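EI: anyone free to look at a 483-residue chain?
SC: sure, send it
EI:
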Amino acid sequence: MIFCTFIIIVGMQSVTSINLLPMLLILCLLVHLIPVNPVKEDGLSPKSRKRIMPDPLTEPPAIDPIYEARVYCNIPSITERSMEGHAPHYFKLVSVHVLIRHGDRYPLYAIPKTKRPEIDCTLVSSRKPSHPQLEAFVRHMSQGSDAQMDGTLSSLPRFPSHSLCEMGELTQTGVVQHLHNGQLLREIYIKKHKLLSSDWTAKHLYLETTGKSRTLQSGLALLYAFLPDFDWKKINIRHQWSTIFCSGSCDCPIRNHYLEEEQRRQYSLRVKNSHLERTYVDMAKIVGIPTRQLRASNPIDSMLCHFCHNVSFPCTKNGCIDIEHFKVIKTHQLEDERERQEKKLYFWYALLATHPFLNQTVNRMQRIAEGKKEELFVLYSAHDVTLSPVLSALGITEARFPRFAARLVFELWQDGKKPSGHFIRILYNGFDVTFQTSFCRDHNKHSSKPMCPLEKLVHFVKRDMFSVFNSTNYYDACRRRPF
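SC: here you go
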């Protein structure tokens, strides 16, 4: 507006500018209409923030280990971008399938000869990060004796409760992350789209989790915020023993072969990184153990816990592990992820690892498209090693490695103008990645609808996934090398 005023004053004061005044006013209007990037509380405009870290799903990010680590931590915030539930008004949402990674957890590994990070895993609403439903969640979990849970799930605690977290235990941050997820999905799928009616029954849900307390508790936290104070008698949670959710189709020798080859690739990249090796040597001297033992203890897992919870890295009489050590190891992780995308070993592994899961999802969608009104909301509570190969198999190569409480959502929609037509949308952490998938990338070029025909996903899972193996079915692909 100051610019506009200046133009008008200058134009009116100059005789030679009188004839130019209309043009100046038009220029002023155009400038006024150009969006201005507001400066946020952290002093960064959205444009400058994008230069620091590009949108993870539109362009390759520059390596910034600290920024990436913060994204991975996923500390709960009030605002979050979400594109779930978006469709033309004449489309009807008929089912939703959600695959989540468990929330923030205590490390699975400890750095030898150092003090464990002191993280409290009891749930206290006055401690940050918190959530308005946290206390009610704890009360409701204490009343869950009527739930039907497969196998060993019934013996697992329904919420974390140790004053000093146990190894791998879900933290309060992890619970809050999934309360946020559940609340967000409730606003969209229950309140807006009425996916489940108020008299929903057990047959409308399908719930499945691995046998770890952190995945069970993460699933329950999301479910509670999605369906507050749900009736425990309507809850039936199935136990999945495999982290890749292969159920009864896990026998796949070639899948195991590619996983072994991928692990060899990872090892080769690591030994070639002299900066990483010097870092491990330095850290090993600090804690007083052989370098090989430190490397085997996977120190990044424990260091991420220190980083995410703002706890100082461990010290000994020989010195302190510090942020520079952390940056070197995290940078190597990011470089490894990039090379993994360039090589095909992990992709081939992912195709075979995820087919049983994707096939089950497609079969369920087909039944619903045919008119079945069961299993309208599906929730799989899993791990990073579950989500990562699914993203790779679908061809979503630009997505970040699954952060804590990551969510991958498959939406099934019915075309109101043509009820026999069904379409899907796929979203990763709230971003629409439907047209980043290998099977629907080209469809976007000649379609006016912001989604992908269901049959394209069906053809991909039932047929196209096996073409690289020169096969037409899962059984043969699991026993035949592509070259």
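EI: Residues 345-369 form the longest helix (25 residues).
SC: 👍
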